[in-house]
Structure formats: structure tokens, C-alpha cells
Amino acid sequence: MIQDLRQMNEPDLKALLETHLAQFFKIIPEVEGRFLVDNTPVIVDYLLYPSEALITQGFDARWVGVEVKSPIQKKKSKLSRVAWQSITYAQSEFGDYGRPMFVLTFPSVEYFVPPEERLAIYHMLPLLQHANVGALHIKEDYWKMTFGHQLYFNSRKGKGRVKNLGLKRNCGNF
């Protein structure tokens, strides 16, 4: 049984991710890259490449970035920090792997605010989606990737209905 993600530290979250996704993806940890805006060096926690089985189910054959953060609150602004870090990685290149098609937070940004402050998420999710940032959700017997409340991929059901979800690059007044 998966314990409450709100109480997990970053090493435990990374172990959970690796355990649940290893059969589905090639997983490369700690990948160095550069932020395309000003060439600042960056390091994304993971790059994932889908297995042939996932590609057959409709998963796009491109790299995906994942930023893992523990929701254990030490700083009040953790939500905005996780969001900005993920946006930065979505606008970065990682050597021979190139620019990821999108970046996912794990756990999802909903874990970074207390229930009484959920309205902040209502405004954050569309911004993240426009910036090619979604969320990875790992459950006991399946996983899924979402953008806002829309499904990109579910390990049980396959690809979601929105064709370019998470893939369209938005810039300026799109």
C-alpha cells in the first residue's frame, strides 16, 4: 500500500517512482541541461522514455521530464517554487535528449497546499498546462499523467482523448 504522499520525503518519493515506472519507461536520473532563455545550467530529477508497449498504446515517443519534490512544508512558497522549477525545465534542453515534450511534477501540485487553500490550485493548473507542465499520479495498481484535470495517459486505459494535451507549445498571447 502506498503511504500518504504528503508525509513522504524526496528519496522515498523517488524510490516509489522508480519502482512503479521501471517496467514502463527507460528512466534516467539527474540529467543536466540548460535553460533556453539564458543558458543557466539546470538538473531535472528524471527523464523518462516510453517502452514500445506504451508507444503502441499511443504514448508519444519522446522524452518526458519529472521533477520530484516532497510536499512536507518547510517553506510557505513551496507551491510556486515547484511550479516555477517545472516550468523552467519544460523550457530547457538536456544534451542529447533534447527538450522534453513536457515536464511532470510528482506528486501533483495539489499536495503542496492545505485543503483550505485549494483555490490557489484552480488558477495554477491552467498556467502550468500552458507551460507544458502536468502531474504524475501513482496509485497502488496504476499510474496516470494529467494536465489540469485532463488525462494525457493512464497505464490501464491508454492515451486520453485530447490529441495535443501537454504537447502544444504556447508563447505570448496564444
Structural description of this entry:
The protein has 174 residues and is α+β, with helices and mostly antiparallel strands. It has a single domain (5-159), classed as Trna Endonuclease, Chain: A, domain 1 (3-Layer(aba) Sandwich). Helix content is 24%, strand content 29%. The protein is built from 4 helices and 9 strands. It has helices at 10-21, 52-56, 78-90, 119-130; strands at 25-35, 41-50, 64-68, 92-93, 103-106, 133-138, 143-147, 150-154, 158-159. Strands 4-1-2-3-5-6-7-8-9 form a 9-stranded mixed β-sheet. The chain is globular. It starts with 9 loop residues before the first helix and ends in a 15-residue tail after the last strand. The mean pLDDT is 89. This is Endonuclease.
